[in-house]
Specification:
Blueprint (H helix, E strand, L loop, with lengths): L17 E8 L2 E8 L4 E5 L6 E7 L2 E4 L5 E4 L4 E4 L5 E5 L4 E8 L7
Antiparallel strand pairs: 1-2, 2-9, 3-8, 4-7, 4-9, 5-6, 5-8
Length: 109
């Protein structure tokens, strides 16, 4: 068994969002994201896995395909399909969320 406190050791940077790996194995990955107010994760997608985002602190605007968007706060889960382009922007306070992905990241060739 492994135990992780998702609200411990959160690191912020005033210049850009921070992503920290919490756990990685052959079955999946957990990443913790920390954004200062107004910071944004630019549009991107994941071709290997759906993306599940669990909001722990703050509020943000989560954008997906076809201009869809949701404002989500603590206790919310945002789900993106495989290959769905998405972006995240923090609101007026610090935003912390965890991304859950299937499988290990691809190794560089």
């Amino acid at each position: 068994m492994e135990h992780v406190d998702l609200m411990q050791d959160i690191k912020f940077n005033d210049k850009h969002p921070i992503a920290q790996s919490i756990h990685t194995d052959k079955n999946g990955r957990l990443l913790q994201f920390a954004l200062e107010p107004g910071q944004e994760l630019k549009e991107h997608s994941n071709s290997l896995s759906p993306v599940y985002l669990l909001v722990l602190k703050g509020q943000g605007v989560f954008r997906g395909n076809n201009g869809s968007q949701a404002v989500a706060g603590p206790g919310s889960i945002v789900i993106y399909d495989v290959d769905e382009k998405h972006s995240v922007k923090a609101g007026e306070e610090e935003l912390v969320f965890v991304a859950i992905l299937h499988g290990s990241p691809r190794k560089a060739d």
